[in-house]
Design brief:
The protein is α/β, with parallel strands linked by helices. It has a domain of about 160 residues: Nucleotidyltransferase, domain 5 (2-Layer Sandwich), CATH 3.30.420. The chain is about 50% helix and about 10% strand. The protein has 14 helices and 7 strands. It is globular, with a radius of gyration of 26 Å. The N and C termini lie far apart (about 60 Å).
């Protein structure tokens, strides 16, 4: 994230630990804007720009890459050839959301039953995900779901919370798998594991876990929408949409928002102006003015004598 110097100074005044410039990865810039060095992943995505395109978001370019990948049983077959019998795919959803838990699922697919249409849940329409989730639950050997709530995410950060949810999903799985396929991470489980970059777009087992987790978390968001209707959770699923961030700035976060995420705490940082207005309104109240005047008169009747 690049901030103008004035905005960075304002955040530094509110939060003394806030850095004026991003640590390392920051290059010399023009007068007021910090420019971040592109990561290796960003450089890979930038190669996906079409001729004539000057700029696209990283999420758009990532989706283009995922659409080019094919979801197969390649990694499952390698594990079977290595002697594994029960191979679980595991994935999480909700890492980038501002509200609610991160949810993980683990799925063991039947080797002799192919569920057609499996791919990364982000590339599927909601109604297609629902149909596939039902097929997965009906025809898999076993599946489990685990989650880590917003309070725990704030306590240990989203990276470690995601690992915790993934590991819990595998430990809760029955029957116990002897090999786990994970989307780009290494988790704390006893059985052998293989981490696969873009695993939910390449492995059928991980894709199945991604679909189960996504459908379950979306259902939770619809339930939370009834409790916190102002945030539009049924539509944004707790993610950082422009409308969601605008609502946060206007109403502040709920108890289930992730307080450690920048759009949430920055929305809270904008609240002191409203608090000042409330205090000012109280001070201007006639009863408060009268009490303050009586206190001043009382203080005048007891002059302070300083020691010589």
């Amino acid at each position: 994230m690049c901030l103008e110097a004035g905005e960075a100074l304002r955040l530094r005044n509110l939060f003394p630990s806030f850095p004026l410039l991003p640590p390392h990865q920051t290059l010399l810039v023009s007068r007021s804007v910090a420019v971040r060095k592109p990561s290796k992943r960003a450089k890979k995505y930038l190669k996906l720009l079409k001729p004539g395109e000057e700029q696209r978001s990283m999420s758009t370019l990532k989706l283009r890459l995922l659409k080019k990948l094919r979801c197969t049983l390649k990694y499952e077959k390698l594990a079977w050839a290595d002697g594994a019998q029960l191979i679980a795919g595991v994935d999480e959803v909700g890492r980038g959301a501002l509200f609610g838990p991160v949810v993980a699922a683990a799925v063991i697919l039947k080797p002799d039953y192919r569920i057609r249409g499996l791919r990364d849940s982000k590339l599927l329409l909601p109604e297609v995900r629902e149909v596939l989730a039902e097929r997965i639950r009906e025809h898999c050997i076993g599946y489990s779901i685990a989650s880590v709530d917003a309070a725990r995410i704030d306590e240990i950060n989203i990276y470690w919370a995601s690992l915790e949810a993934l590991a819990s999903a595998v430990r809760n799985l029955q029957p116990v798998p002897d090999h786990v396929l994970v989307d780009a991470l290494k988790i704390d489980v006893e059985c052998k594991q293989t981490k696969i970059i873009h695993g939910d777009a390449l492995s059928c087992s991980i894709a199945a876990a991604s679909i189960i987790a996504k459908v379950e978390r979306d259902r939770w968001m619809r339930d939370f929408d009834a409790q916190y209707p102002v945030y539009g959770l049924a539509s944004n699923k707790g993610y950082s949409t422009p409308k969601h961030k605008a609502i946060l700035r206007e109403h502040g976060p709920s108890p289930l928002h992730r307080q450690s995420f920048a759009p949430v705490w920055m929305a809270q940082a904008e609240q002191p102006a409203d608090l000042f207005a409330e205090i000012q309104q109280e001070v201007e109240d006639p009863a408060v003015k009268e009490a303050a005047l009586e206190a001043a008169v009382l203080m005048d009747s007891f002059p302070l004598s300083l020691p010589s």
